[in-house]
Amino acid sequence: MWILAACASALFAGITSILAKCGIRHTDSDVATAVRTVVVLLFAWLMAALVGSISTIGSISAHSMLFLALSGMATGASWICYFKALSMGDVNKVVPIDKCSAVLTILLAIVLFGETDALAVKLIGSAGILIGTFLMIERKKQDHAVEGNSWIWYAVGSAVFAALTSILAKVGIEGVESNLATAIRTCYVLVMAWIVVALKGKLGEVRHIEKGELGFICASGLATGASWLCYYYAIQTGVVSIVVPIDKLSIVVAMAFSAAVFHETYTKRSLTGLALIVASTIAMAVIR
Fold this sequence. Notes:
The protein is mainly alpha-helical. 77% of the residues lie in helices and 0% in strands. The chain has one domain (2-286).
């Protein structure tokens, strides 16, 4: 069941990337992140209410609360970096770098949680993902105007914080219903996102978001909420070093849509890299 949940998480995450890209063509990425977090928060608490887990919030330990908070803040940092990178670079380059967080997460899960089953497969698969990513971020003519190379650093930051998110969540979600845990950690993401907007003096820009882009931002938030609910259920009930790579297969969805919607093009090298990433991920999910 947790494998199916991880697959669903990948599907919704891929859709999130495209909807978010559509929503930040003219809207500042920090503002868009803050607005979409509101949607995610409402969605998460609605799901927690529907499954009846809100009443158990008083029984959550201080230890779990701490790690859920840290996970939420890591997510906020990852989002800020990710959507800034998306606003500056091509989806077909930003997404692969962000997905490298899978490799760091796998290594941390092996060390911290002792997930050493099929260790050789996991290590070889991790190497395959890294090589595939390297192939996909080749230099080529841009599909649209790109603001220098600073997007790379934001994409790398997104990957590092995303890896920390998964590890911290695995610790914090233990003994906590997954929907409720998602709702709690989203509160911290929301606070962090709006603090960034306020500190940068962008609060006034919220009123000027185009209606069309606002719709895409909200839709992106719903897709994110759905992805999170599936992801953290899989994290709680499954094996982190397998769940994370499956979730990162959202790259296939994101790149397919980016080709269709944004007309971003792919070379044989980039497609070879994508195939290597997919094959490595499937190998780690199947051989365990």
